[in-house]
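Example S7 (structure tokens).
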């Protein structure tokens, strides 16, 4: 039997066991990111941002489109405001509930989950500090007209976002059934700005940022 099939069978067995600890295992080999300001930077459980990394040009999202004061890097902010404005014209209400979060905030958030429910749960529902995309200033959590980001996929806005976000440079970062690639559970509310060209490619090919980066690296080092 080839190595490929053995890996596939092991993966299926892992799924059948419904092993909750899989979300922690992605932290086994960590690389520190040396290009944190790149628009398509890959931040996940394997690629970590330095604790002192703060994006340079953070800009406040118009409070028409955000709950409270929320910040993104300027390019992402402008694009999101346009997205939200266009959505509104069509009768959809898309509001940011979380955007830039610094290292310390993420540290506290993660620790809160650990203290309340333990590491396995924390790793399933949150990111360890340095491993959250929110520290890049390129990610948002959104809510629709049902007013709860947790059930964003039950809102009419969800479908609109799914079909249109890429036109504004945003991708759904943690899709269903891609947990084994992203290392994160399905999060219908979490969108990531990667720039319009990249977002269109990711959308068209129905892939994740991890797969997109891998393909590019393969082409680069062929
Ligand atoms: Zn998020």
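Recovered sequence:
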């Amino acid at each position: 039997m080839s190595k490929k099939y053995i890996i596939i069978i092991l993966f299926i067995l892992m799924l059948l066991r419904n092993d909750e600890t899989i979300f922690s295992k992605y932290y086994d080999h960590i690389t520190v990111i040396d290009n944190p300001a790149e628009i398509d930077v890959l931040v996940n459980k394997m690629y970590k941002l330095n604790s002192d990394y703060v994006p340079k040009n953070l800009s406040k999202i118009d409070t028409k489109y955000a709950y409270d004061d929320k910040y993104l890097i300027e390019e992402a902010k402008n694009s999101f405001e346009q997205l939200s404005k266009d959505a509104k014209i069509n009768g959809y209400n898309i509001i940011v509930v979380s955007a830039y979060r610094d290292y310390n905030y993420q540290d506290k958030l993660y620790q809160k989950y650990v203290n309340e429910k333990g590491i396995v749960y924390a790793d399933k529902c949150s990111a360890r500090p340095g491993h959250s995309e929110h520290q890049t200033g390129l990610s948002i959590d959104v809510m629709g007209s049902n007013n709860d980001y947790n059930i964003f996929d039950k809102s009419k806005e969800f479908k609109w976002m799914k079909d249109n976000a890429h036109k504004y440079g945003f991708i759904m970062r943690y899709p269903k059934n891609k947990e084994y690639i992203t290392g994160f559970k399905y999060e219908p509310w979490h969108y990531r700005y990667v720039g319009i060209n990249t977002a269109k490619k990711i959308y068209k090919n129905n892939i994740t940022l991890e797969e997109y980066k891998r393909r590019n690296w393969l082409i680069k080092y062929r």
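Notes on this example. The first helix runs from residue 3 to 17.
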